[in-house]
Amino acid sequence: MTIQRVAKVLVMEKIIFSGYGMFITEENSKYYINFDEGGISNKDIRYEISEQEAIKARQSGLDAYEVMLRSQSRARKCNL
Predict the structure, then answer these.
(1) pTM for this one?
(2) Into how many domains does the chain fold?
(3) Has residue 7 been placed in a domain?
């Protein structure tokens, strides 16, 4: 990824919460949950979530985990 591309991504994406092993970003009025899905090695993942899920994931570790699982399940159903 070029430096220009990285700068463009950083400007457009805003971290709105970090905790419980994940962070939530907002970009162009869309919310994303970001976390490490790896086992032996790191595999950083980013899934789109609803605003309600973004609010829920900030409430507790259990709620965050629930949103992570739900977003993974949706992505697998859509083959993302």
Answers:
(1) 0.78
(2) 1
(3) no
